[in-house]
């Protein structure tokens, strides 16, 4: 007898119970676990009470008909595959069932083998969707664990754009300062895309000289250059059906930019030293801390390549513009650092430490924050970490006095305006917090910001 322990469970419903029983017996012979019921209500009760892998239902039944059962069943189990059975004269109703989410319809009379084939396909597609959903969730969780925090409006805006373009294959250009987390966002984009099951390949365009980078990206033929003792496929080939992330694209040499443009336009790669071209199916995501339009003006970056890469440009904000995210980022980094250094005495960040972190400019962004937290964990001498232990180069020295003045004497109104604008930028554009720190109300801050400076 077939093993039923892991067999797919199919519920068959037909108001002619002998018909349902006959189909259930036939499916059992093909390795399914099938049960037959005579009414839509009985079928729905089974679906709500126990795991069911697929539903096979007649359309015309007294009481709850097939369309009503289909709707109720998919409300209870959204991904449940449903196959409907119909007489020849009810094809219009069968087509309506497809519109409402049925996988397929079979016109009576049909052969059992036909039902087995369509059930197998429906179950396979359902399994693939579940696996893809699980994988996407896993990758999203991994990205979150890696430090993506988005409470700030600037970071939420970036993630919103990525989430909307993820299902497409459009090239995405991530722009932002070094250490802001462009690589993490590239992984997030891949995890949210239809290519999540495929590879995610990263290459730093600034880390390799031009000849080696060309070989790394496109591969090389055997004997293409000294040391090429074997054929190599290259990173584009390794990223097939996935995503390739070209970091620091602004540093790529102009000659290599031309070859990359050809790859984007024709979707083929030619290994170094080869005459054979290979088609590719890869999504390209790039990142840079450079102003590429300025690089174009300087003759250092191809304008036609820029048009191809920035189909969807996304600005990744520096840490100073997303200070709302800093407490959660710091806490997450602290937890990871303590796990790496279990003998550390540091258990938490002191209130003074967190306030100092909120004031610090973080020129190195999230990467600098991660290094600072690591130092706090390694060098801290008490359960509460002190900001001074982070030894940050731009932090004010202990006991330092207030602002130092130099240059020409300015009218007080202009000083107020300049200082208010500086404070607003330092506090991530948060007007309420800026007004509070300056000891004024928001209306006064708005007046300072709107004042015209003296000539």
Integer count of domains: 4
Main sheet summary: 5 strands, parallel
Low-confidence stretches: 397-402
Please count the helical segments: 18
Strand order of the largest sheet: 2-1-3-4-5
The percent of residues in helical segments reads 40-55%
How many DSSP-defined strands?
A: 14
**Mean pLDDT level:** 85
Proper CATH architecture of the largest domain: 3-Layer(aba) Sandwich
Strand content: 5-15%
Radius of gyration: 31 Å
- The rounded distance between the terminal residues' Cα atoms is 95 Å
Describe what is shown at a glance.
This protein has 455 residues and is α/β, with parallel strands linked by helices. It is built from 18 helices and 14 strands. The strands form 4 sheets. Strands 2-1-3-4-5 form a 5-stranded parallel β-sheet, with helices on both faces. Strands 7-8-11-6-12 form a 5-stranded parallel β-sheet. A two-stranded antiparallel ribbon has the order 9-10.
């Amino acid at each position: 007898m077939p093993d039923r322990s892991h067999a797919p469970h199919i519920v068959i419903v037909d108001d002619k119970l002998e018909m349902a029983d006959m189909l259930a017996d036939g499916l059992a012979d093909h390795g399914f676990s099938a049960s037959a019921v005579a009414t839509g209500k009985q079928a729905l009760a089974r679906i709500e009470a126990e795991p069911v892998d697929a539903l096979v239902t007649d359309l015309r039944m007294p009481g709850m008909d097939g369309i009503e059962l289909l709707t109720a069943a998919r409300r209870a189990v959204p991904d449940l595959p449903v196959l409907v059975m119909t007489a020849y004269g009810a094809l219009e109703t069968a087509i309506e069932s497809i519109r409402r989410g049925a996988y397929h319809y079979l016109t009576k009379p049909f052969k059992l083998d036909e039902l087995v084939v369509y059930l197998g396909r429906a179950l396979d597609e359902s399994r693939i969707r579940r696996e893809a959903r699980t994988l996407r969730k896993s990758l999203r969780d991994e990205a979150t664990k890696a430090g993506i925090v988005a409470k700030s409006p600037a970071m939420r805006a970036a993630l919103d754009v990525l989430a909307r373009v993820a299902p497409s294959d459009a090239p995405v250009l991530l722009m932002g300062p070094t250490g802001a987390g462009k690589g993490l966002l590239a992984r997030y984009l891949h995890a949210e895309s239809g290519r999540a099951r495929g590879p995610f390949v990263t290459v730093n365009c600034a880390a390799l000289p031009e000849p080696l980078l060309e070989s790394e990206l496109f591969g090389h033929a055997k004997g293409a250059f000294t040391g090429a003792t074997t054929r190599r496929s290259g990173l584009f080939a390794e990223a097939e059906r996935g995503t390739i992330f070209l970091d620091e694209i602004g540093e790529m040499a102009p000659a290599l930019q031309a070859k990359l443009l050809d790859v984007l336009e024709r979707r083929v790669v030619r290994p170094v030293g080869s005459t054979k071209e290979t088609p590719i199916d890869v999504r390209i995501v790039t990142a840079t801390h450079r102003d590429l339009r300025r690089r174009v003006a300087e003759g250092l970056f191809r304008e036609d390549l820029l048009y191809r890469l920035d189909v969807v440009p996304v600005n990744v904000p520096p840490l100073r513009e997303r200070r709302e995210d800093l407490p959660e980022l710091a806490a997450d980094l602290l937890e990871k650092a303590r796990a790496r250094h279990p003998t550390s005495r540091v258990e938490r960040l002191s209130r003074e430490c967190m306030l100092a972190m909120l004031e610090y400019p973080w020129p190195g962004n999230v990467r600098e924050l991660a290094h600072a937290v690591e130092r706090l964990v390694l060098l801290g001498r008490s359960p509460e970490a002190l900001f001074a232990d982070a030894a940050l180069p731009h932090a004010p020295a202990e006991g330092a006095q207030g602002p130092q003045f130099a240059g020409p004497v300015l009218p007080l109104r202009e000083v107020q305006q300049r200082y208010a604008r500086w404070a607003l930028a330092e506090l991530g554009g948060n007007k309420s917090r800026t007004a509070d720190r300056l000891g004024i109300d928001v209306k006064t801050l708005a007046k300072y910001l709107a004042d015209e400076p003296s000539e």
